[in-house]
Amino acid sequence: MQCMECHERPAALHVTEIVNGTKRERHLCEQCAQQKGYVANQEEAYSLHDLITGLFGVNQVDLQQGQRMIQEEAIKCKQCQMSFHEFRKIGRFGCAHCYESFKSRLAPIFRRIHSSSLKHHGKIPKRQGQKLHVQKELDNHREELARLIEDEEFEQAAVIRDKIKAIEEKKEGDHS
Amino acid sequence: MSLENFMNDAISPWMREEGPNNDIVLSSRIRLARNFNQHIFPTLKKEEELIKITDFFHEEYHGSSFQTYKNFDLIYMRDLSEIKKRALVEKHLISPNLVNENMGAVLMSENEQASIMLNEEDHIRMQLYFPGLQLSKALEEAFYIDDWIEEKVDYAYDEKMGYLTSCPTNVGTGLRASVLVHLPALVITKRMKRMIPVVNQLGFVVRGMYGEGTEAVGNMFQISNQITLGKAEEEIVADLESIIMNLIEQEREARKRLIERSSSMLEDQIYRSFGLLQYSRIMESNEAAKRLSNVRLGIDLGMIEHVSHNILNELMILIQPGFLQLYAEETLTSSERDKMRSTLIRERLMLEK
Question: Where in chain A are the domains?
Answer without folding.
Answer: 1-45, 60-113, 129-175
